[in-house]
Amino acid sequence: MYFIRKLKPPEMSIEAIFGLAMIPALLVLFVLFGFETMFGFIAIIELIAVIIQLNLYFRTRNIYFLWMALALFIVFIFAADLAWFGLDKMKAEFKVLAIGVIFAAVLVIYIVFTKKIKWRTREILELSAMPVSDAKDGYTERPHPLGKLQLSRFEAEAFTAFIRKNLVAIPYIENDVTFYSLTNNYWNQMGLKKDFKNDSWISLDSAGFINVFISRKDYLKFKDNFSFDQLCYSMGNLFIEFFAMFKRGEGIQIINRLNNLKLNPIIE
After folding, report:
1. What pTM does this model have?
2. Which residue has the higher pLDDT, 134 or 59?
């Protein structure tokens, strides 16, 4: 899908920074301490990554985090074996582990490039900005009331589970109000940071009333100073449309609409 980008290029994520920092760190370990120590360090990192993926699965119930955990655990076993026993290509288990690592690599590539564990914040912001052209008002720090949805408690809970599982937003429930937090903050995604009120969010109370808030940091991601009210209105209507699609049993169309933007699956 071709469209005019209204967001600035993304900033480098924590994961990307850590990945780039790993390269010189591994080289230093190899030169100073040897092959086994380097792979021992890799094994520790992979084990931490497995724990992170499991945590994300229990927070989102997205099954692909379990597949990622499996792939990384295979790499952990391979690295731990090399760190403990050294490189011996004649060992029977070496060939088995090597095949396992190839399988793990293919699995990770599939999951990443099909966006199975991709958080959708930038896509939501791009979709929200598509119909907005007015740039006269600028930013105001206040939630924008939108309207009311007719929905049952069961429908609200099912929609919330769908939004969580597909990484569209992180739901928080406070006093019978569900806040769908749109954030790329790694600590929020991990559950290590609970404060979401300074992030962009859409709220839905038990009576069906909707409020929308776009944070200053997200507003500054846009190339132009778009009308804050129009952006909030567009984002709220986008979620109303998503709910209507979900209610009709067309949840897959929500994911297809996000995927059709074809944002970079690694950096965006």
Report:
1. 0.89
2. 59
